[in-house]
Design brief:
Two copies of one chain form a homodimer. By secondary structure, chain A is α/β, with parallel strands linked by helices. A seven-stranded mixed sheet of chain A has the order 1-2-9-6-5-3-4, sandwiched between helices. Chains A, B: Pfam families: DHQ_synthase, DHQS_C. Chains A, B: Catalyzes the conversion of 3-deoxy-D-arabino-heptulosonate 7-phosphate (DAHP) to dehydroquinate (DHQ).
């Protein structure tokens, strides 16, 4: 689907734009304050008779009416689906609620879906858009920092299955991403920190200068300074777009985006979903993966305290739960990225450079001993 | 996913091959007798630890063991899922049975799905492959004539929803299609005729010479002559591939593949699914659409009796059920291809050339009067 996006001059002047180039499916990420209420944010989207906003009970009271008002200028009918809030609702029932609504309103194959919320809403709405009549357009309006940096690029959509996270899904690209930084003003501090974890990640895996920039600007980010947030979100999206552009279907390079995630997923699963936020588990997982990089001789010893200090300053946990080494290893062996039972870690091989490697169990055990309590 | 397909010289000498070129997702369709038991048919498929055969209760006793034996030479584990037979089971429950089996066996993202059966099995298996872990490879082994000519090309996968046929799905390409003509020996005569309907279709929409060839060879096709079947399946796949290659995502040209389908879908829905086979409804629908082409002055008068005679000889119905003109119009207005309530017909504009057009209700009524009883 080719979507022309004539960006109007009337966007707020502070708006940053990241153009994602993907053959015929390219799109723009708009980043900045004041975007929800700027008519220009909504111009040039795919034409259709109707749009359907998908959001949740937490986000709807804050932003639904404003988004609906903007869409009403472009679509004859604007419907909504209100889903319950939370990762535990990222399932077939919620997906079905979206599909049922589309069919009940006799929505045709041009209907535009609008995901208004965090990563869960974005993942589910994107998957519904991917499979309804084999594909309708969708727009991402991420309202959490994590969703703005992580779900905006890469086209991963999914729902969970009782037997596994993100087990059903599709690679499917949005027609546009509208990341209004003002929506972060209402974000709880834990969720802000969880978003910062994914931003911090991009430094060690791809950009040493960006790591230094984050260290110098972390206080501004924590104070929700709009200019600092705009740069952090933009640079994260650019790096992710560069990585994904070389490996859209996750055959190889893209795996480096999972720095900290192998340990992190084990923490999430081991504690039960919902105990720690995903970003919190990734933060702690990055400490462990940094230590493993040092113990394998890939990085000098001062890399570990540098990463731990930054992650701690961001308000993220740096000590994992004491699940036991055997349990950690078991959880990491069923990771989606493991192959034939061998655990594969994303490790730092120089500031701004990452790779996938295995590691001796004994060394992993040392890491777990050092960073769990 | 790039799949190298080194076609061995040891394929049966009568094998026809159609190479489908789709950037990185190209694949081969093998057509001929004796393919199921030819080791060469199964060489060069994507490597994986395991394969999962999806089939149904009717097909399994005939071919499951033979396919399993061939796959066992390439995959360490070969599992199976047995689904109930029939279009009414092309739903979320069957899809879930496939996914549950994949998860229960801890299948990774390289696991190869093998669809062994007709169009229903192919559509569901393809959709499961499209969404399991955001995409695993799959192989089509179509065992009906309809599936060999229709599901082999185009990448359409789907399940039905209580509110509509094929409402949830994806465009997703197989790694290979193995169309063994020997499997047609066990096909009931009604199903053979239903497959012939889709073959006949390719003449008027794209290839006048092929229409003449079908007329000259229909008796051989009905007698299940392998050489005649091989040519008919091959030419149908080639034409479909040519059309789809120009319009993979069904934005325009691809709609001509629906010649006879607008009237046909109305017959299927009006009678209730399962009364007529899809191909039977399409056969009768082609008579109606041929007549409409003549009444609109697009084709000379002798085109209608020529088409009606051929469709009748194939053992297909040429007179539709008397649902009433208003009911027909109502059913055709909710067709997935209608836009803003206007019915769009695929009409013949010269032998081997088709286009999409609207038509006055009064003319459509004349057509329905002439061909229903």
């Amino acid at each position: 689907m080719s979507v022309a996006v004539p960006l109007s001059l009337s966007l707020p002047p502070s708006t940053e734009t990241v153009a994602i180039a993907l053959d015929e499916r390219g799109y723009d990420i708009l980043i900045g304050p004041g975007l929800l209420d700027a008519p220009a944010s909504w111009q040039g989207l795919p034409k259709a008779a109707a749009a359907l906003i998908v959001t949740n009970e937490t986000v709807a009271p804050l932003y639904l009416d404003r988004v609906r008002a903007q869409l009403a200028a472009h679509y004859g009918r604007v419907d909504k689906v209100l889903l319950p809030d939370g990762e535990q609702h990222k399932d077939w029932n919620s997906l079905n609620a979206i599909v049922d609504r589309l069919l009940a309103t006799a929505s045709d194959r041009k209907t535009v879906l609008v995901a208004l919320g965090g990563g869960v809403i974005g993942d589910m709405t994107g998957f519904a858009a991917a499979i309804y009549m084999r594909g309708v357009p969708f727009v991402q309006v991420p309202t959490t920092l994590l969703a703005q940096v992580d779900s905006s690029v890469g086209g991963k959509t999914a729902i969970n299955h009782p037997l596994g996270k993100n087990m059903l899904g599709a690679f499917y690209q949005p027609a546009r991403v509208i990341a209004d930084l003002d929506t972060l003003d209402t974000l709880p501090p834990r969720e802000l920190a969880a978003g910062l974890a994914e931003i911090i990640k991009y430094g060690p895996i791809a950009d040493a200068d960006f790591l230094a920039w984050i260290e110098a600007n972390l206080d501004a980010l924590l104070a929700r300074d709009k200019a600092a947030l705009a740069h952090a979100v933009k640079r994260s999206c650019e790096i992710k777009a560069w990585v994904v552009g070389q490996d859209e279907r996750e055959q190889g390079l893209r795996a480096i985006l999972n720095f900290g995630h192998t340990f992190g997923h084990a923490i999430e699963t081991g504690l039960g979903y919902g105990e720690w936020l995903h970003g919190e588990a990734v933060g702690c997982g990055m400490v462990m993966a940094s230590d493993l990089s040092v113990r394998l001789g890939l990085m000098p010893a001062d890399f570990l305290p540098r990463m731990r200090r930054l992650i701690e300053r961001a308000g993220l946990p740096v000590v994992g739960p004491r699940l036991g080494v055997e349990r950690y290893l078991e959880l990491m062996r069923v990771d989606k990225k493991s192959e034939g039972g061998e655990i594969r870690f994303v490790l730092i091989e120089g500031l701004g450079k990452a790779g996938m490697r295995g590691a001796p169990d004994a060394l992993v055990a040392q890491v777990l001993d050092a960073h769990t309590a």
